[in-house]
Write a structure and sequence with these properties.
8 strands
């Protein structure tokens, strides 16, 4: 198995990290708060380590598991240390009142993050349509992803399979806007009676 780096130590980072550790990958946890990074690494065990925030991540795949509002600043903190990496954006750029998306018209959160990153970073949207607690329960869930770089997308698809997920390629990075709208729709369903134990599945005949 390979080394995967994850930036973040919150609920979504913890859920994704749990699947990564269970799959047998080596996990590097990075956080602005070193104590939180170490606490998550200790919780996961299985060889997980706490890395140095802002330094070049060990993994070729780096998961950006922070709220959208701080994502661009985090990417700026790492700068060219992310060059050559596949950066997975998991955020849902929703308004505080959940009334809509906060991204500019014609763009997506992933595209805005890609603009903030250096040219050598390959951004792929993934995980944003999976609620953290549902992901943590296990099971084979559909994981939709979008990106522009074919090699990076192939790497992400293989990675998702190792986590026991079904990779579903929806197209180029502009399709991240559709995935983010789907994330918002799922939040709306959850808040309006469907409950939070839900996931979107596509059956391909």
């Amino acid at each position: 198995m390979s080394t995967i780096s994850i930036i973040g130590s919150g609920t979504m980072a913890t859920a994704i990290s749990g699947r990564i550790a269970q799959a047998g990958h080596t996990l590097e946890v990075l956080s602005r708060d070193p104590a939180k990074a170490q606490a998550l690494a200790d919780k996961l065990a299985n060889g997980a380590i706490a890395g140095t925030y802002g330094a070049a991540p060990t993994g070729d795949i780096v998961i950006l598991a922070v709220p959208y509002g701080s994502a661009a600043a985090v990417v700026a903190d790492f700068g060219k240390a992310l060059d050559g990496k596949t950066l997975i954006d998991v955020s849902n750029p929703v308004a505080p009142d959940m009334s809509g998306l906060v991204t500019p018209a014609g763009s997506s959160g992933a595209q805005e993050i890609a603009k903030a990153a250096s040219d050598g970073v390959h951004v792929v949207k993934a995980f944003n349509t999976l609620f953290g607690h549902v992901l943590a329960k296990g099971g084979q869930l559909d994981a939709f992803f979008a990106g522009d770089d074919a090699e990076a997308k192939a790497r992400v698809a293989t990675f998702l399979e190792t986590l026991g997920l079904r990779p579903r390629d929806v197209g180029a990075l502009p399709m991240a806007a559709t995935l983010e709208a789907l994330g918002l729709m799922m939040i709306g369903l959850a808040k309006n009676g469907a409950g939070w134990d839900l996931a979107v599945r596509v059956d391909i005949g």
